[in-house]
Amino acid sequence: MGRAVKVATCALNQWALDFEGNLERIFRSIDIAKSKGARYRLGPELEICGYGCSDHYYESDTLLHSFQVLAKLLESPATQDIICDVGMPVLHRNVRYNCRVIFLNKKILLIRPKISLANGGNYRELRWFTPWSKARHVEEYFLPRIIQEVTGQETVPFGDAVLATKDTCLGAEICEELWAPNSPHIEMGLDGVEIFTNSSGSHHVLRKAHARVDLVNSATAKNGGIYILANQKGCDGDRLYYDGCAMISMNGETVAQGSQFSLDDVEVLVATLDLEDVRSYRAEISSRSLAASKVNPYPRVKVNFALSCPDDVAIPTCMPIQWRHHSPEEEISLGPACWLWDYLRRSKQAGFLLPLSGGIDSSATACIVYSMCHQVCLAVKNGNADVLADARRIVNDETYIPEDPREFCKRIFTTCYMASENSSQDTCNRAKLLAEQIGSYHINLNIDAAVKAVVGIFSVVTGQTPRFCVYGGSSRESLALQNVQARIRMVLAYLFAQLTLWARGMPGGLLVLGSANVDESLCGYLTKYDCSSADINPIGGISKTDLKNFIQYCIENFQLTALRSIMSAPPTAELEPLVDGQVAQTDETDMGMTYAELSVYGKLRKIAKAGPYSMFCKLISMWKEICTPSEVASKVKHFFRMYSVNRHKMTTLTPSYHAENYSPDDNRFDLRPFLYNTSWSWQFRCIDKQVNAL
């Protein structure tokens, strides 16, 4: 009858400008799709060159190499008898577009440019691409000679069209178009398109996956149809982790779910679906039929090919499944761990070094590395040859098999407790015990000699010796002495990262990990160029509240009992002198605000787009049970003073895993000045007037 179609989608760990590796992964996904009987294969957005090419899109080389890869795909026997849908940049009439190139049996069927470009948050597509603004319009695209020689075609259709096969009709969306209020699938569905495809470059944010799944399912709930989503996965060269979640949905229900986090470079989903289920679902929606009778038709590209087989009555079709979402704690355990693995293997380093203070933040970072070691061992156990080859190269042993996470951790992870005269024995013991439980190679050292040497240079030059407040010094002196300790730790971290393996008779160097959380970055509670300055930071986009919950998760799931005492201890920088052998300095006292308050400020500032006055107006309602308007005003003013005084620190912030939508990352997500008028005179005066009125 020709009603059961078999389609494939995938999640690929592509890497910006890695044309060789990207081509190999595309071929692998096509081979898997064909081996499972699929007649159509969908890949992620811009998969040929990798999504994160950024300003490399301006280079003609990127276009040239993309077409060279396309030629390899077109001429290969591997792509015969399956419709292949791949993503790449295309220059049409001297305008650069983000495109899908759909081909079959050495012939390009359609080049479909992206209509709605992603340009918020971390996305800057309008910088490099132009949206296709000619709805339902198709032009001739003149193929470059390298493609003409393979296909024998001089021109192909370019524009907003759909494909009409022998048995159904397919229409493409690209990433952002699913999220747009006027998504193309609405009109395409009314015009008889039965299969919608979406090629995405969608990155991980905590608690975001459900929104993507809901959008895909709702796309066909009202209008019927089959929706296929492909997505990139992994770290393709920057702060983002693309979290897969390839999926196939029909008539508002999920029928196939891909993994959100895994170390598999190639993951392919295949589903067999009955087109008659779509047709009968649509037939009983009278409002849809009325709207469909008035719709403007899409140009159709006829394809002499079927996605189904003539005799398919006995072929079983896929049934709806329940999507399983990870908890935020699981997301923190898995997402940054996969990102770290990609960064480690692609940077060709031999492991990580972490200054481990015995506090929550550095301990959470250590736990993420330990989780990464778990994922590596699990992947090898499941037969992942790529992960095994990478692990062997990293540890420089061609016969090595990572089986025990603690043993693997010992090989690739060095932790270092850098004590000073202001450090307590408690934090030293906590760091040592945690290192023992995760298996890291642990170093204890004392920085007092280096601190005294640096301060001594200052004293020789100026004749003055700065003192801490508790010894009669000023706050300026005390802060300077704290910063010297912090910055010396950064210098030592890099020294040990470069030479620890050399001292142990092993090859390679280590990547330095930072461990400042998103809340501390937001208010600037860190020393510029201290050991928060590192190569990468897996927790820099995660709040203190979420990190505490993650620590509890690690206690329960990894049996890391050392974390219990870390959880119960108040967060402290340990940069001021001890009082009677006990820590007197705490983070929240230093900041003048709690971490819980900081999360609220961060979400209002970034997500709610609130300046000082708007934030005050929102908080007098939110906190009316616990604060007077005057107290709210004082808190808001203090936050904005701290934020603006310290904003300059964001310009040197260590590249961090992006996990939170209120991240203050100055690179491209949170674009603000770094020199403010920190008095906020006009704004604070508006707050004062409102307080008086209240």
TrEMBL record:
InterPro entries: C-N_Hydrolase, C-N_Hydrolase_sf, Gln-dep_NAD_synthase, NAD/GMP_synthase, NAD_synthase, Rossmann-like_a/b/a_fold. Pfam families: CN_hydrolase (PF00795), NAD_synthase (PF02540). Residues 5-275 form the CN hydrolase domain. Its EC number is 6.3.5.1. GO terms for molecular function: ATP binding; glutaminase activity; NAD+ synthase (glutamine-hydrolyzing) activity. GO terms for cellular component: cytosol. It comes from the Eukaryota. The keyword Cell wall biogenesis/degradation does not apply. CDD domains: GAT_Gln-NAD-synth (cd07570), NAD_synthase (cd00553). SUPFAM superfamilies: Adenine nucleotide alpha hydrolases-like, Carbon-nitrogen hydrolase. Keywords: ATP-binding, Ligase, NAD, Nucleotide-binding. One of its GO terms (biological process) is 'de novo' NAD+ biosynthetic process from L-tryptophan. Pathway: Cofactor biosynthesis; NAD(+) biosynthesis; NAD(+) from deamido-NAD(+) (L-Gln route): step 1/1. In the C-terminal section; belongs to the NAD synthetase family. HAMAP family: NadE_glutamine_dep. Homohexamer. This is Glutamine-dependent NAD(+) synthetase. It comes from Dryoscopus gambensis. The lineage of its organism: Eukaryota, Metazoa, Chordata, Craniata, Vertebrata.
